[in-house]
Each structure stands twice: as C-alpha cells, then as structure tokens.
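Weekly sync notes, structure subgroup
Attendees: PM, AL, DS (notes)

Item 1: joint prediction request from the bench team. They want all two components modeled as one assembly rather than separately. Inputs as received:
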Amino acid sequence: MSTTSTPALPPFQRFLDAERDTVWRYLVSRVGPGEAEDCFQETFAAALRAYPRLRPDSNLRAWVLTIAQHKTLDAHRARSRRAVPVAEPGEIAQRDSVPGPEAGEEALWQAVGALPERQRSAVTLRYVADLPHREIAAALGCSEEAARRSLHEGLKKLRKAVEQ
Amino acid sequence: MSNEDLTELERALRLGPAHAQEDLRARGTSRAAQKDARDAARRFSERAGARGLADVNYASVDSPFGPLLLAGSGRGLLRLAFPEEEVDEVLDGLSRRVSPRIVEAPAQLDRSRRELDEYFAGDRHAFELPLDWTLVGPFGRRVLSAAAAIPYGDVHTYTQIATKAGSPRGSRAAGNALGANPIPIVVPCHRVLRGSGALGGYAGGLERKQFLLELEGAR
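Output from the run, pasted for the record:
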C-alpha cells in the first residue's frame, strides 16, 4: 500500500485512550494495584514529553510499554531502597492479613526479576502484555529474530530456576 | 496464542504475579480494571493540562447549538467547532497544524466556557478571553481582526471588512477568510453581511447566523 500524504501522529488523547487498558493491565501485573497509579501517571507523562519527536509510523503500543517497563524498574528500585531489614509490628500485622503467594509463584517472579533486562522485557511483553513477536522486536529495538532468541533464552533460564 | 499450546511455565507467566491475581479476584471482572484505567487516564489528562505539559487542551461545552468543541493553547483559544464537525477530524487538524500533544482537559477551557455561557444568556457583549491565532494566516488575521472590531448588535458589509483589512477590492477573499474563521462566535464573523442586507454565508449554517444576530438585537 503506497500513499503520498505523510502519516501524522494521532492526537495524544486518542493514543492514551487506545492504550490505557493495556498499560494499566501491564502495570498492575508488574507492580500491583497500589503502585500502578503512580507508574501509569509517570509513564504517560514521559510519553507526552517525547511524543512529538516520534515517527508517525512507530509502533505506539510497543513504545509506551517500553516506557512503562522502565517505570516499573524505577518503582522496584525505590521499593528496595525503602525496605527495612526488621519489619515494624504494624507492618507484620498488615502482611499477615494478606494471604501470601504460593512459594512456586514467588520463585518464578523472582526469577523473572533476575533475568537480564532484554530477556525480562521479552518475557513480560510476551506473556503479560500479550504482544506478538513483531511488536516485542519493535519495543526492544531489535530484529524479530533477536526478540525470539531473547524470549527463548529467558524461558530456558526460568525453567531452570523453577525446577531447582 | 491458544492456551493448549502453552507449557505450564508459560501459563504461570500469563497469570502474572500473585498480587495481580489477587487484584483480579478481589475486583471480579476486568470491567473494574477498565474503569480504573479510564479514571487514571482522565486524571492524567487533567493534570497534564493543569501543569501545561500539553500544547493543546480541549473540551466539549454545551450551547444552544448543541455541544461545541473548544481547543486552546497556553496562549489562548485556538478553535471552536460546531456540533456537525467530526471531533476526530478537528483534533487531527490540530495535531497536524499545531502539535500532537493534545489532551482533553475541560478545566483549562473554563474561562472560554464561562464567557460563552454569559454571551448566550445575553449578559456578555464582548469576549475578553485571550485568542491564539496560530491557525490563521496574515491576511485572514487582518480580516478577522476587522470583524472582531464590529461592536455587538452592529453589522458590516463584506466590502467594508475588505477595506479595513487593506484590500478594498478583495471582498470575495475577505468572505473566504471569514468562512475559514477557526473561532466563530467568539470572533464575530456572523456580523458581516452582503451590501444588499442579505445574510451572505456562514460556516455554521445561515440559521445560526440569524440566531446570533437576533440574540444581539441586530436583526
């Protein structure tokens, strides 16, 4: 399909409305409902700043999920800085009221967190955001083949980690 | 990706971490998640508008003509669109000609909304809100400025406006510039008539032109 007119970026609001559900789902799955709101606001604020510099034919979903992913890493880092070795009594009470995750699940997501960045991105974009390989490649800025390889390597490591 | 093709590991990954599953269980359907996403997006747009992060803010406001689309920049009101204009097309035009950094931030258009309400109630005879002329070329700017100087309740002819815009023989060009007015009502191109007294044209429809002139007591 060839067209002579240059495609323009959609108005930001339309892009926000089209991607908000995916980004929200992704953030809730990565940082939980409590921190999803802050990450969501920061993700779209960063997207709005960079928006006019985007090429109109960019894959907007892959792009915004990459930003969201960076924001979740920031949130994880901030949380580990806040972590106190000995919990306060109130904190323990609060924690006890929430049913703990299954040991196996916890191990799996710790293993996901321990993957090299590109593999972790490939795994979360594939399974949490449900992106096809082509869009993962666009988000990571690599070829589709390289994206498949990262995903494959990541899954291999995870399999090993949960079998231990 | 069908579920049968997935290994156990892949299925676990798709379910997400435990806290995400708990959230889904606690909130029931994904409709709740969609509402959360919609609310978060609304908060984002309002905040972006309030902090001046967007280049264009827009809102829909009620009027006797139906919902009007208002769009403004940090400088002032850029655009007023009548209900027949497709919102998507108006926003696409603003994205191309001004900036794609466009958000729906109704609070940023509060002043325009207030002055329009007062105008339609007959309580306001002159708009004081700042205007942004980005969508208007130099000739159009001269023509629309001449139209904006016509007092409430008064009318001018196309020739008079063309003369004031510096091209006495350009009444047709002046008519085109008035027809392309991106901020009708506020920039009162409806106050320009034919020399014969006939209404001439109006992008919003002649009935509306008549309505506005009657509201102002000009006809």
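Discussion: Residues 10-59+67-79 of chain A form one domain.
Action: AL to compare against the crosslinking data before next sync.
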